[in-house]
Please model this.
Amino acid sequence: MSGVIEAVQAALAARLAATPAVTNALGDPLRLFEARNRRAAFPHASWGGSEVSERGADGARMLEIRLTLDVWQRDASPAALLGVLSDSIAAAPVPDLPAPWRLISLTPAYRDVFATPERRLKRGLLRVRALVACEP
Model:
């Protein structure tokens, strides 16, 4: 299972970077960071938590991976940007992963906007579900 989360994150980042509406909002190169970056220009995004669960059956190893993408916006709601990100993920073909992994599906599963202790700062959360098979 080592490296599959990073491979899915890289595929997702590449998909987002190839979408003009996303690069218009998050820049080129994307302001997408491994962890929250308090010094980055707004808006920007960072990877949140991830969860992995086994979904395989007889002789087939499959993983369900849930990734969290946090979007940070000052003086505005990140709701529209969450929509752009979600649409980008839903519209593109499923990218390839390095062997032995094969990405079956990559879909936005949940999104919401939250207030933060900093009055002017809002946090958008986008949860993405990936279904990955391990090829023998």
